[in-house]
Amino acid sequence: MRGSKIFQNRREAGRVLAQQLQHHRGRDDVVVLALPRGGVPVGYEVAAALSAPLDVFVVRKLAPPDQPEYAVGAIASGGVVVTNDDAIRALHVTSEDLEAVAEREQKELRRREEAYRNGRRPPEIAGKTVIVVDDGLATGATMTAALRAIDKLEPAQVVVAVPAAPEDTCEELRHRVDEVVCATTPQPFTAVGQSYWDFEQTTDDEVRQLLSAPTVARRAADEPGDAAAAVRRGAVPAPAGIVDDDELFDLVGDARLVLIGEASHGTHEFYAARAHMTRRLIEEKGFQAVAVEGDWPDAYRINRYVRTVSEDRTPAEALDAFRRFPQWMWRNTVVEEFVEWLRTTNADRSPQVGFYGLDLYSMLRSVNEVISYLDARDPAAADRARERYRCFDHFRDEQRYGYAVAFGAGQSCEDEVVQQLVDLQRLDLDMVKRDGMVEDDERF
């Protein structure tokens, strides 16, 4: 991708960047190093898309106090210092000012290394392909400092990947490393922040949380033998029906998605084990979403409750939305206790953990949810939605509609629904242009 693109935020920029790095996916010799703090959300999306481990490489740019975004140099782990003499002269930075900035940034570099690593050792990158990610480049001084320090660790290959940078900076780096991926090269280039709608500063807490979140998918081994033998080989001890934390975390590894199944519905022991494992994965592995085999409007009422934006006063009230058979799958004491725990946990957590339904049984309730969402944001769009959804008016329920369309006894509403989906996507874009962000959870 060349030219200009405005990313919604760093996470979206990382997803776009990852598309141009897919040739590195699935390799066990790839490590993603993000330059904190802004590079970490970008690096997380890249690492997750490539199923590669993520770590940080701490670099601090040296910038004049009156122009904090414009780097005249940088320092990195290992005592590496890089300066841009042309920039220093152009901005009239004195040696005294530069020394003062360097001393301050050296202290911050040490603080961040201690805070982000939390006692972990730096990654082993000798002989590996290292993808160095930041949220953008201006002069490239910060990246250059990082590359000089990384060279000392003897990687096999070095790739620089950024969402936005000037073309000449990207070209200079191509003479320095094995591969450079600049997702966009705006012309004229004035500042990294102009490539983002949301360029809020990334916090230390966000960095720590993303570093603790899994990015490497667990690869299943090809095991010979019949299904029963495979189950026996994969089975782990579960005293009292609960898997030990060490066993659980070893099984999960760096996976981003964990599927928890059950041999039968309605069994208390399975529900209790599922709730316990989900809690531990949220607490220790940083998972941020719970998706259940339930209708999405019903589950979204729970989502509002656990995020404390609901009028429901108790988990039992929030679970009252589950009225479709079998109600007892979700309206039971184990789920009530888990929902209340999640609400309490979210009170002190950012970002909060969501609760979502994977099923789409309740067509008419889903229609009402869409219209309610639009009524609060764009009444004209809500009126268009009502007009399109009138196609369903002569059907009393979803099953009747399905039978009628399947057997040619009624008109399909597919065209109207697709038009409405396109309209919703267009509305999202308009909201981004107007407000700089979209309420992702409510939009979902």
What's this entry about, in short?
The chain has 444 residues and is α/β, with parallel strands linked by helices. It is built from 18 helices and ten strands.
Q: Mind explaining what this structure looks like?
A:
- The chain is an alpha/beta fold and 444 residues long.
- 46% of the residues lie in helices and 12% in strands.
- The chain contains 18 helices and ten strands.
- It has helices at 10-19, 39-50, 85-90, 95-117, 141-151, 167-174, 204-212, 227-234, 245-252, 268-285, 296-306, 315-319, 333-346, 363-377, 379-389, 398-406, 414-435, 440-443, and strands at 30-34, 54-56, 59-62, 73-76, 80-83, 129-133, 157-164, 179-184, 289-295, 354-359.
- A five-stranded parallel beta sheet has the order 2-1-6-7-8, with helices on both faces.
- Helix 2 links the parallel strand 1 (30-34) and strand 2 (54-56).
- The longest helix has 23 residues, at 95-117.
- The two termini are 28 Å apart.
- Mean pLDDT is 85; it is low at 218-223.
Features:
globular, about 450 residues, 3-stranded antiparallel β-sheet, PRTase-like, Emycin_Estase, alpha/beta, PRTase_dom, Phosphoribosyltransferase domain-containing protein
